[in-house]
């Protein structure tokens, strides 16, 4: 019998897309923390969503069972992902769509750019999607002379502001309405110079601009929330209806989808369409749920392409501890409850996937060496695990990834020494005495060497006790 | 009942008063407390910093030290959380299935203080007296890893003289997170600032919790501010009596 060793699946390539930040999390976070406007905007926005979501989740008596069902369906999907994808491909093809397989961002961008170019269009309208942000599709289209127009209001704000999204669901969560008004006045074609910062006025300005674009653009690009293997049906959920415009008006529709988004049957949607709106926006039911199966002659887009993207997902799948990160339905509940995210915002995470899910997903997609600070961007408080509608145990994956991450040499040495001491009670007791002496000799509560000085910079260490507990016990 | 005390390295070295209070309290309730020699640290710092391999001897040491006892108590939610949810994983990761099952067996007999009192010993009124205005920070590992729920609050409400005031946004992390406070010192400080703001808004004289690590963090911040609020471990409040406040 011969055995074929296939090697580790490839991670997402560098130099393309937005999975890697320019600087480690602590440095990026430090800058974000210094921005009082950002802190207010984030605190207000996450607090509001948390409250709304908690209230509607409370209404569902079988929420725990729904979560368990969601987790079980996703675990089943991952266990037979290749088969389901082949089934999906067959169903989409049978319904008149064309399926493309993209091993990574470079290939996906090449496929989409080629498809758009073949239609002769120089502009595409875009449905809000994480995956096209992940692969940097807008940059690739622009480089090919094609203008991408984001049609999700918040995504449009980010695009016009030449900014980066900072939240999965509310990409402009870091902006308040005064800032949005300024961006519109600066960058929105044909905007009324008398625009106020009333939410209704801002929405009307965006509507006027987008309407024209919808009616005059023949190609749309979307992501997908779900793809049903059994029927070949794609599903996009959104709140504004702008996605619905993109999915129905143009002649050509190109959908880019991470391979993990496939679900086995139509019936499985029942579970996720209950979980997703309550966990994400705190709505009982999603406002616009668009589903389409291939091409329907005379109705909607007459050309449909589905691009199935790997870009590191097979590598995540291959890790049994990290794999549940692929279960994510991008509801962003984990961001909204995360005390770190609430203070740093999304940009600090570098990747398009911020917050707790980003801290476990980005390092796995890129290989942990390229995002080594992200698994540490958490106190392991566990709020994300409690909030996640598909029960992803994010803290355990973080701890696992920390073990995989490259460690600073000085830290490794110190950790090994500490473990050795802790495993030898006599040395341990001696170390306790030494610690007390050095603390008494030094300035109390201050002046620890770096990196420990980071802790004492804003807090006092307590007075050293005259006796350790074990000394007290021995003398008792 | 014969109860083995796992003091935890932090309480042993920096906060012996929390451990001494645990001993006083349990003895006052008529139980025998033993302090098994050879105990050191649960290894949580190693595991959470990315060194589960280095934690294996500490997991083994914990299992060996406490296996002979039916009931083990620690005045720390996060150390008990580590024993319960990490020890077997650390052993399995190192390929030591025998240690993993031993660790699971000892973990099932290891309790955080409020769990021990309410679930095992069946008391909520421990006869304590503590005439102060107190707010309780639930700490993430007690709250979400151990699910101690309202056990600490029930114990506190039964303390004579004590006024328990609710802490706003209580379930939010204080920002300690072990090495998080060092690696992400700025974010940790921002979280601490909000926690302190909430503590101060209660008008409490004392902020209590079941974890010395979080108390060290919050107490360190309050002390730097000269805020006039003390941090006191739950065990110390429960150990206080009219004779010795
Ligand atoms: S990890 Fe869970 S909570 Fe976070 S975005 Fe994904 S599904 Fe939502």
From TrEMBL, chain A:
One of its Pfam families is LUD_dom
State the species of origin: Micromonospora rosaria
Span of domain LUD: 87-308
Q: Report residue spans for region: Disordered.
A: 1-21
What keywords sit in the KW lines? Answer: 4Fe-4S, Electron transport, Iron, Iron-sulfur, Metal-binding, Repeat, Transport
Q: Which domain of life is it from?
A: Bacteria
In Swiss-Prot or TrEMBL terms, this protein is called (4Fe-4S)-binding protein
Drop me one GO molecular function for this one. metal ion binding
Recorded hits in InterPro entries, A to Z, give: 4Fe4S_Fe-S-bd, 4Fe4S_Fe_S_CS, FTHF_cligase-like_sf, Helical_ferredxn, LUD_dom, LutB/LldF, LutB_C, NagB/RpiA_transferase-like
* One BP annotation, GO: lactate metabolic process
From TrEMBL, chain B:
| InterPro entries for the chain | Cys_rich_dom (IPR004017)
Q: Which residues form the Cysteine-rich domain?
A: 3-82, 134-218
Q: Which GO terms describe its molecular function?
A: oxidoreductase activity
Q: Where are the transmembrane segments?
A: none
Q: Which domain of life is it from?
A: Bacteria
Any one of the GO CC terms:
cytosol
PANTHER family per record? LACTATE UTILIZATION PROTEIN A (PTHR30296:SF0), UNCHARACTERIZED PROTEIN YKGE (PTHR30296)
This one is known as Fe-S oxidoreductase
């Amino acid at each position: 019998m011969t055995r074929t060793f296939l090697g580790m699946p490839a991670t997402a390539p560098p130099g393309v897309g937005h999975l890697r930040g320019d600087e480690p999390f602590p440095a990026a976070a430090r800058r974000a923390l210094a921005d009082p406007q950002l802190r207010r905007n984030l605190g207000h926005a996450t607090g509001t969503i948390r409250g709304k979501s908690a209230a509607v989740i409370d209404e569902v008596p079988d929420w725990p069972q729904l979560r368990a069902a969601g987790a079980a369906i996703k675990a089943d999907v991952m266990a037979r992902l290749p088969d389901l994808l082949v089934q999906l491909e067959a169903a989409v093809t049978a319904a008149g769509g064309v399926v493309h397989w993209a091993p990574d961002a470079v290939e996906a961008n090449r496929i989409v750019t080629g498809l758009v170019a073949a239609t002769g269009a120089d502009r595409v309208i875009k449905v809000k999607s994480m995956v096209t942000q992940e692969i940097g599709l807008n940059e690739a289209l622009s480089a090919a002379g094609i203008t991408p127009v984001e049609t999700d209001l918040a995504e449009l704000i980010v695009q016009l502001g030449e900014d980066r999204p900072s939240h999965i669901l509310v990409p402009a969560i870091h902006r308040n309405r005064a800032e949005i008004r300024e961006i519109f006045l600066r960058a929105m074609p044909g905007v009324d110079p008398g625009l106020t910062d009333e939410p209704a006025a801002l929405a009307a300005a965006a509507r006027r601009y987008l309407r024209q674009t919808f009616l005059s653009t023949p190609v749309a690009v979307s992501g997908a929330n779900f793809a049903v293997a059994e029927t070949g049906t794609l599903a996009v959920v959104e709140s504004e209806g702008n996605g619905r415009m993109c999915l129905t008006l143009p002649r050509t529709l190109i959908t880019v989808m991470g391979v993990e988004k496939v679900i086995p049957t139509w019936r499985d949607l029942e579970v996720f369409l209950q979980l997703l709106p309550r966990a994400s926006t705190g709505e009982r039911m999603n406002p616009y749920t668009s589903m389409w199966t291939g091409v329907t002659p005379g109705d909607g887009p007459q050309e449909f392409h589905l691009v199935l993207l790997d870009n590191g997902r097979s590598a995540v799948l291959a890790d049994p501890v990290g794999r549940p990160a692929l279960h994510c339905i991008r509801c962003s509940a984990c961001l909204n409850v995360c005390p770190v995210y609430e203070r740093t915002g999304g940009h600090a995470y570098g990747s398009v996937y911020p917050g707790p899910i980003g801290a476990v997903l980005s390092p796995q997609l890129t290989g942990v060496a390229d995002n080594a600070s992200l698994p540490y961007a958490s106190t392991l408080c566990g709020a994300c695990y409690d909030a996640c509608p598909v029960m992803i145990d994010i803290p355990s994956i973080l701890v696992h990834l920390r073990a995989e991450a490259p460690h600073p040499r000085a830290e490794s040495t110190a950790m090994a020494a500490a473990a050795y001491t802790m495993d030898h009670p006599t040395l341990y007791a001696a170390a306790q005495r030494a610690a007390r002496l050095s603390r008494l000799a030094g300035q109390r509560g201050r002046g620890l060497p770096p990196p420990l000085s980071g802790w004492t910079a804003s807090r006092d260490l307590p007075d050293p006790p005259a006796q350790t507990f074990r000394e007290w016990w021995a003398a008792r | 009942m014969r109860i083995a005390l796992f003091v935890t390295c932090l309480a042993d070295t920096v906060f012996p008063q929390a451990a001494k209070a645990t001993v006083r309290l349990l003895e006052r309730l008529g139980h025998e407390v033993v302090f098994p020699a050879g105990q050191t640290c649960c290894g949580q710092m190693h595991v959470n910093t990315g060194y589960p391999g280095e934690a294996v001897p500490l997991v083994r040491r914990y299992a060996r030290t406490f296996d002979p006892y039916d009931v083990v108590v620690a005045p720390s939610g996060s150390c008990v959380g580590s024993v319960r949810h990490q020890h077997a994983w650390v052993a399995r990761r190192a390929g030591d299935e025998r240690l993993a099952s031993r660790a699971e067996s000892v973990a099932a007999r290891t309790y955080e203080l409020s769990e021990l009192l309410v679930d095992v010993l069946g008391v909520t009124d421990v006869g304590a007296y503590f005439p102060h205005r107190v707010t309780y920070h639930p700490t993430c590992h007690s709250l979400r890893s151990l699910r101690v729920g309202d056990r600490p609050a029930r114990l506190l409400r039964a303390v004579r003289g004590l006024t328990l005031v609710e802490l706003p946004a209580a379930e939010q992390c204080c920002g300690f997170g072990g090495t998080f406070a060092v690696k992400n010192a700025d974010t940790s400080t921002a979280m601490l600032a909000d926690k302190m703001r909430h503590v101060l808004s209660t008008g409490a004289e004392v902020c209590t919790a079941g974890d010395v690590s979080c108390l060290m963090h919050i107490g360190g911040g309050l002390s730097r501010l000269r805020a006039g609020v003390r941090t006191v471990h739950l065990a110390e409040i429960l150990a206080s009596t009219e004779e010795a406040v």
